[in-house]
Specification:
The chain has 195 residues and is mainly alpha-helical. Helices cover 62% and strands 3% of the residues. 20% of the residues are buried.
Length: 195
């Protein structure tokens, strides 16, 4: 039961990073930095397993079934075992990194070739999703969600806190992602009328 939120978090990282770049409309450098982070995230479990095997060889650890035992220091065996078996996490991180890379590369292609993007020719303005400047406690995410779906702000905050207590990792990661992905609403400029 506890592994379900962990699996969702591992699968969510790549697409979340790519959507941050798309939503914030980063420049080429920002896209490339995020692409590097996503690729590193995808291969991180394999790098951990490789480093664990190196530690086991360096300290003379012996494999007993699925556990490594190290002569000195003895607690190193648990660390080596965890590092060696981290490669199983690649089942989740590699597909997440592939999806995130596809999102970033497609947004880079659209950024480099703007003639393929669709232009809004209608008189209706496009819906923009902003974090609130006025009604924020931490970053304005709950106020943005409440405004978007026309809900009371306090109700959204209470539900967010309740979910953060029940499923802490997933909710905090989702909140952090929304904080990074949603731009802050533009300031209201006061126009002075001169006589």
């Amino acid at each position: 039961m506890i592994y379900y939120p962990l699996i969702l978090i591992l699968l969510f990282v790549g697409p979340a990073l790519s959507s941050i770049a798309i939503r914030r409309s980063f420049r080429m450098r920002g896209h490339l930095i995020l692409l590097g982070i996503i690729i590193f995230y995808g291969i991180l479990p394999l790098l951990l397993a490789w480093a664990g095997m190196g530690l086991a060889e360096r300290f003379g650890c012996q494999s007993e079934a699925i556990i490594f035992r190290c002569p000195n220091p003895s607690r190193l065996g648990e660390l080596v075992t965890g590092m060696v078996f981290a490669h199983w996490l690649a089942i989740f991180t590699i597909p997440s990194a592939i999806l995130g890379s596809i999102g970033l590369i497609s947004s880079l292609i659209l950024k480099l070739n703007p003639s393929r993007t669709k232009v809004n020719t209608s008189d209706k303005p496009t819906a923009v999703f902003y974090r609130s400047r006025r009604h924020k406690v931490i970053s304005g995410v709950c106020a943005a969600l409440a405004q978007r779906w026309k809900l009371p702000v306090q109700g959204v905050r209470i539900v967010t806190v309740a979910l953060a207590v029940i499923i802490p990792g997933l909710v905090w990661l989702l909140y952090l992602w929304l904080w990074l992905a949603l731009p802050l609403e533009p300031p209201i400029e006061s126009h002075l009328v001169s006589d």
